[in-house]
Amino acid sequence: MTGSFDVVVVGGGPGGYVAAIRAAQLGAKTAIVEKDRLGGTCLVRGCIPTKALLQSSELYTLAKGGAAFGLVADNIAFDFGAAQKRKTAVVDQLVKGVEGLLKAGGVTTLRGTAKLAGNGAVDVAGERVQAKDIVIATGSAVSRIPLKGAEHTIDSDAILELKEIPQRLAVIGGGVVGMEFAAMFAALGSKVTVLEMLPQVLPMVEADLVNLYAKHLSGIGGEIHTSSKVAEVAKAGRALQVRFSTGGEGGAVDADQVLLAVGRSPYTEGLGAEAAGVKLERGRVVVDDHLRTSAAGVWAIGDVIGGIMLAHVASYEGICAIENIAGHARVPDYHAAPNCVYTDPEIAHVGLGEKEAKERGVEVRVGRFPFAASGRALTLGQSEGFAKVVADASSGAVLGVHIIGPRATDLIAEATLAVQNGLTLDQLDLTIHAHPTLPESIMEAALAAQGRAIHIPNRRIQAAAANPASNPSPTSTTAALHNREQQMVTPVKPPTTPVPESITAKKLELKKENRDFLLGIHRMMQLIRRFEERAQEQYTKAKIGGYCHLNIGEEAAVVGGILPLKPNDYIFTSYREHGHAIARGIDPRAVMAELFGKETGTSHGRGGSMHMFGAKLRFMGGYGIVGGHLPLATGGAWAVKFRKQKDVVSCLFGDGATNIGAFHESLNYSKVFDLPVLWYCVNNRYGMGTPVEAASAVKDIYKKACAYDMESIQVDGMNVREVLLRTSEVVEKIRADSQPRFIEALCYRFKGHSVVDPDKYRSNEDKEKWRKADPIVAFEHELEKGGLADEEYFKTVRQEIDSEVQDIIKFADESPDPKVEDLYKYVYCGEWEESPALRGNPL
Ligand code: FAD
Q1: Which residue from 224, 205, 204 is spatially nearest to 216, judged by alpha carbons?
Q2: What residues does ligand 1 touch, defined as CB less than 6 Å away?
Q3: pTM of this structure
Q4: At the N or C end, where does the chain have fewer CB atoms within 10 A?
């Protein structure tokens, strides 16, 4: 058996065998050592045999209630021997499966107890093997406590081998193992009593779920004594008696079997760990965050390192350790490790609980959905319980999900994906859930957290409807109807960017005296980003019609291109650019309301997603067809020149517009007639397919302007300070000599229009290069380096903006639709006739 391996894994449980298979996949010559059966505690004495028996007890319970489903069966009885036989068959099949997998994967299996001999040597059954790396995965064993009469008790290994169902079962310890056996035997007819020292059984589970389970157990004759300390287990004739005290008062329970389920302890017996330089701490192998032990080349995973002692965590750690050995740095992240309890009803949870989040100072929103309202749960006849979603109140990120009810242990998978990936409530509820299924309950709980569940009444909304006067919130529907004019002129938060008289290099220095201005710019960029991200979500919810175009990734080019303009200057842009409107100071609520087609929008909802307008701010975001607004800007610049004003017309467009005739005509005309116009191309390299640079003979767009003998520059559109400075200089030159000029701001649109994905058309190098240059992140680095702000500040801004944008959406959502009788108001020129003031001076 002697030999040398790249990796030797000690222990064939779910940690060890998964690690061995992964190591072999990565090309390592791998051996696994197992002293008992492959599969470890999980397959042989834990997860699998218990669940096989629980399936039997569940079936028995269902069959007993089968009459209501039309199942006709007399004298339903339970054959414990048959259930045990099936359990053994399931275990055997899986153990064989693991043996086969290891063989197929090219892993050598060594039988016997492994002892570490130092320097990569491992002794197995009197032979020595050598390994470059060793992974300790020796698991855990049942914990023992110094309890008087403990010899009369059985442990979780022995209870699995019982030949008959005990009439009375006492369970000492209300952890997961204890409660699962309690549930199983209670369902099979045992009189079950659980004794738990702590104030709550299943201490890691939220109290509302545990209370519901305790009620269920008591409904089938079980009893739970919490805060109860067991003093001894004594023989009482042919039976046993468990003596305990609760709050100083003595009690006793008679039982035929007593299960001692007080936990499991890491197992290193016979391993020779410490002699080989592996540090232990109260029996567990000590590891660093990469799962390295104190001995070089020795790693440890699973129950033996303590922490979360679950099979899937052991497997996950196995993968992490092997990938670390292979040189891919993997630090295990446990924040979304799910925990399942196979009681009836089942319990499962992942992430933070309500209480835990509050203790950490996180403000949460909670949504609950009872299975009694789930169509699928009713068809199953299992409608006890609920799903609860806990989310961050400001960002909507799902922090945790807690379920008690049918198949909770399967349902938790979706929740785990959400918590692991930081998905938001919106993203959960925007995912189409098949019907009728139990996972719909998670979606409904996510909706309930936002006060808009469909299949249960929403508490918050009901309260407001019952007594509108009691809810004077300016964003409530009633208030929106009565007060919309006022709301139109009151921004959510006044723009906080104190723009200096003129933007100079000095004003852009990263110095304390410029702090307010620079942080104001940062805030505006963040607002545009979040606004656009949320607008996209609203689009996919069909709240926004037509097309929805996004400035994500262009914030520096947009803010830098617009802030240098004076209040009297004019902006002609395409309707699609919400970021432009926000940077110009248009109330973001009115922008969102316009996208929603609401009366409170910039064009009273007549434009929908096709028209943005702000007369006072001289902002024309209209005319949808690519580049169609360039001739309008030329006309506007003519009007300024005709009136002999010193205003500048800024025309913003994307690179797509530079390929059309109107672009060339407009540039030519503006140059020939010396019009005061800034042609500002946001070259976001997104041409709805082929970027213009790939389709045009002239790759640098600014060079196209040179053809008209126009001063033209290219700027780094990801660098907000550079864009601000260069644009400011160019704008003031135009003001001084009424000559058109051209700026190409090179940037990168991270998201496509609506839900179109521009990434499909981009090379990986391109994507990587530009994403690294994210304009907000880059600016944050600058601010941080200049000592003007830190990560804590940026986090706070993000949170504030998150809630600001939520308010914006709420406002738009609750704003009234245009009245049918007023539908043509603001649309036809009849109004012009009625408003001489709009006509201006005759030519
Ligand atoms: P183990 O599975 O304990 O495997 C360790 C292996 O190492 C064993 O096979 C052992 O024989 C071998 N070994 C030890 N020392 C040596 C040595 N020196 N040389 C060679 N071989 C050695 N977890 C869940 O996730 N879900 C559940 O539903 C669940 N139910 C459970 C029910 C019960 C009753 C119990 C007891 C546990 C349950 N668990 C459950 C926990 C789960 O079984 C463990 O977390 C998991 O098995 C740990 O995996 P591991 O690989 O770290 O160790």
Answers
A1: 224
A2: 10-16, 33-36, 40-42, 45-47, 50, 113-114, 137-140, 156, 177, 267, 270-271, 302-304, 309-312, 314
A3: 0.63
A4: C
